Amino acid sequence: MAGSKLFVNNTGKDLQVTLFIRASDNPANSAGTQAFRLGSSQQNWITYGTDQNIYLNGISLVGYFNGQVTGTQDFVINRGSSLDNELNMNNRVEFRYGGDSFQISTNNT
User: Fold this and answer.
1) CA geometry: angle at 11 spanning 46 and 9, to 5°?
2) What's the Cα-to-Cα distance from 95 to each of 25, 26, 41, 50, 103, rounded to whole Å?
3) For residue 16, which of 24, 34, 68, 70 sits 20 to 30 Å off, Cα-Cα?
4) What is the rounded distance in angstroms from the CA atom of residue 11 to the CA atom of residue 30?
5) CATH of the domain at 102
6) Which domain holds residue 28?
């Protein structure tokens, strides 16, 4: 079964999200990307990868507002790192915007 997570946008901004999918369980291997839009205050279950490629290697967020583009990217380097665990051991990903940067948090529903 492919990977699936609930993505929640609590930033107050429209987002373009890109998921970086891992091939097998080694962070050095890539299985491509999947991009989707998430409107302000929107939440969606997103299915990504394949039965063999269910892990995420990273995430990219881009927000468009006030005549500017702001974004952030996070990538897994080592299996078992805090980011690896956050992205791959939880099924809910929440985005917030505070001050001048995005925050990403995860938990299980």
Assistant:
1) 15
2) 25, 26, 10, 24, 6
3) 24
4) 29
5) 2.60.40
6) 3-107
